[in-house]
Specification:
The complex is a heterodimer of chains A (202) and B (409).
Chain A (H helix, E strand, L loop, with lengths): L2 E4 L10 H8 L6 H4 L11 E4 L5 E4 L8 H5 L5 E4 L4 E4 L9 H5 L6 E3 L10 E3 L5 H5 L5 H5 L5 E4 L1 H16 L15 H12 L5
Antiparallel strand pairs in A: 1-8, 2-3, 4-5, 6-7
Chain B lengths: L1 E5 L3 H13 L4 E5 L12 H6 L14 H4 L2 E4 L6 E3 L4 E3 L6 E2 L2 E4 L3 E3 L12 E3 L3 H10 L5 E5 L3 H12 L3 E6 L11 H13 L3 E4 L3 E7 L1 E7 L4 E3 L2 E4 L3 E3 L15 E2 L11 E3 L4 E5 L4 E3 L4 H15 L12 E6 L2 E7 L9 E8 L4 E8 L2 E8 L5 H9 L24
Helix pairs in contact in B: 1-7
Chain lengths: 202, 409
């Protein structure tokens, strides 16, 4: 089953995923109309700065077991096994912020939303764009990402590719020139890993 | 394998569901003293304030026991445990034998000593029934008195204010939520409450009540008196363990458990508000009577009872509440002792009315208080729980736009 995979080392911090996400979760599904909607749709992916001021797209990991689900008082958070996605039922949510206290990634926000009862502030987070997926589309943040910092693929394949890349780069005798293209920040990661593993030093 | 679980709160429920998911054929008996299907205790204050109705409280369907294959024994309190004979006794009935026993009896409100405390309209706020009683009394209530500035007192005050009752809160310490927040956040909360019409009297307590059948007046320790027609007692909770044989099962404030949630007696486990476990931040034994810990302890106790050895990393005191215009989240040690090894960083943002404070012990985060900027709170809680060394300056964690990526490469 395909998943959204985040490659933080490729992110350039352009934040295009944020309006794309907000638009995908608006009533009209159109950027220009969405701006005029009330409540104004908000993104469920949040681009912030990382340790080296690099961009970092932070989104729900749909953990299993999910700490937010275990902490939810009214039982509004549930896992959809078929989609392998953690979802929040806005009718049941009581806006108590127990999930904010449980989420180790800080990706849950609280605001009015067009999918919730009018006027009600609820917990909102990424839903893996399941409505788009049912129409045969890929998640909006992936579709709009220009640098492949967000990809939609089989986790097993992505993991293998990534480990191979890191292993090749960390191993001795590989120069920076051989790094995969478009990996400006990969070097930072590699430098750090080498230091941790004491590689390439007498 | 026969599992007996005493208590049908969230710790007992989590344990039962975990056992059932791991061992489809085990016998599970659940003994509970409340008759209702499992419900969400923290939400009873919302029934009081009127934002939800009672039918929103259950967290499992009415046929929960049947579907999970659990034999329920409801509206009974266990009177004794036979540790050697491996059975529990309910009053004069036949003992129920067990192979594995879980004590998940929760906690009961801490009683008060004031004279005439048994007058009518003096309530605890711990169960659905309590709130139902409060709502019945409400039409005749004009002035309510809240004892205790903890979370329960707070939620009661909030609910009654929303119902249009005049509320006076008596706090023994100098500011509300003194167990949960530091003095700066406490003063912020106090200011917010007073601006919403709550009357707060600090550093005082009740000596006696009087009234004719129902409470009419409270006499305070400072010699003054307050007219009141309802009293809510929120002085914290005490683990419910009157039936536990203390010579066979070690008890401090709560029932002592090791990292597999085992008590000192073989095959007997404890979880939730009744258990006293290692506190991660304090690095000592502590009873953390909070919902998320009850869930975690119930699950891990269930796994161990079902035969899978799983270690519990320890508990952590934490809380989050929204009161009027303030969101407050706290975790771990919020008021560290005077000691050079503790370092405090804090930030006040006047414009966003936010206040954030982090407490470090050497290079580890051990506590936090967040007011009005709580969305990244879970990241900090995870840092405390994981005992993760923080390699960036604490001030950076208070910078705007902080996210989890700032911490690691």
């Amino acid at each position: 089953m395909k998943k959204v995979i985040v490659h933080p080392e490729r992110c350039v911090g352009c934040m295009q995923c944020m309006p794309a996400c907000a638009t995908a979760h608006s009533r009209s599904r159109n950027l220009f109309a969405a701006i005029l909607e009330s409540p104004v749709p908000k993104p469920r992916i949040h681009v912030g700065a990382g340790l080296y001021q690099e961009g970092f797209p932070n989104r729900c990991r749909h953990c299993d077991p999910a700490p937010c689900l275990l902490a939810c008082l009214p039982g509004a958070i549930f896992r959809d096994e078929e989609l392998d996605t953690v979802l929040i039922d806005p009718d049941k949510c009581i806006n108590c912020a127990s999930c904010a206290m449980a989420c180790p990634f800080g990706v849950i926000r609280y605001h009015e939303d067009c999918h919730a009862p009018p006027g009600k502030v609820v917990a909102v987070k990424c839903d893996n764009c399941f409505e788009r997926q049912e129409q045969g589309l890929i998640p909006a943040c992936v579709e709009v990402c220009k640098v492949n910092a967000l990809t939609f693929e089989e986790p097993g394949e992505a993991l293998k590719r990534k480990t191979d890349e890191v292993a090749r780069s960390v191993s001795l005798g590989v120069s920076q020139a051989e790094l995969p293209a478009g990996f400006a920040r990969f070097a930072l990661l590699i430098g750090h890993k080498r230091k941790e593993l004491h590689v390439g030093r007498p | 394998m026969k599992h007996v679980i005493i208590g049908n709160g969230i710790a007992g429920i989590s344990a039962a569901e975990t056992i059932r998911s791991m061992t489809p054929d085990a016998d599970i008996v659940m003994i509970g003293d409340e008759t209702a299907p499992p419900y969400c205790r923290p939400m009873i204050s919302m029934v009081l304030e009127g934002s939800i109705t009672g039918e929103r409280l259950p967290i499992r369907d009415a046929d929960f026991y049947e579907r999970a294959g659990i034999s329920p024994v409801l509206s009974h309190r266990v009177s004794a445990i036979d540790v050697e004979g491996k059975s529990v006794r309910i009053g004069g009935e036949r003992p129920i034998p067990f192979d594995r026993l879980l004590l998940a009896t929760g906690a009961d409100p801490r009683p008060i000593r004031a004279e005439n405390r048994h007058l009518g309209n003096i309530f605890f706020m711990r169960t659905q029934e309590h709130v139902r009683g409060m709502l019945q009394a409400l039409p005749q209530v004009r002035r309510a008195l809240i004892l205790g500035g903890g979370l329960v007192g707070f939620k009661a005050a909030y609910g009654l204010l929303r119902r249009g009752v005049e509320v006076t809160m008596l706090i023994r310490s100098g500011y509300p939520l003194s167990q949960q927040v530091d003095s700066h956040a406490g003063r912020m909360i106090l200011k917010e409450l007073v601006s919403r019409g709550l009357e707060v009297r600090v550093e005082t307590d009740v000596a006696a009540f009087d009234g004719n059948g129902a409470v009419r007046r409270a006499h305070l320790s400072d010699g003054t008196e307050i007219p009141c027609d309802m009293v809510v007692v929120g002085k914290g909770v005490l683990p419910a363990l009157s039936f536990v044989p203390r010579d066979k099962i070690a008890v401090d404030l709560g029932i002592l458990v090791d990292e597999q949630l085992r008590t000192t007696a073989p095959d007997i486990y404890a979880a939730g508000d009744v258990a006293e476990s290692m506190d991660i931040a304090r690095n000592s034994r502590w009873v953390n009577a909070i919902w998320p810990e009850a869930v975690a302890q119930g699950r891990i106790a269930g796994m161990n009872m079902a035969g899978r050895t799983v270690a519990y990393k320890g508990s952590l005191s934490r809380n989050v509440i929204r009161i009027f215009g303030l969101d407050v989240m706290t975790a771990g040690i919020v008021n560290p002792p005077e000691d050079d090894r503790y370092k405090i960083v804090s930030a006040i943002d006047r414009r966003r009315r936010s206040y954030r404070k982090l407490v470090f012990h050497e290079d580890r985060l051990v506590g936090m208080t967040l007011v009005n900027d709580i969305e990244q709170g879970g990241v900090l809680v995870a840092l405390i729980q994981g005992c993760i060394a923080v390699r960036i300056p604490g001030e950076k964690m208070l910078a705007p736009g902080f996210n989890c990526r700032r911490l690691f490469i």
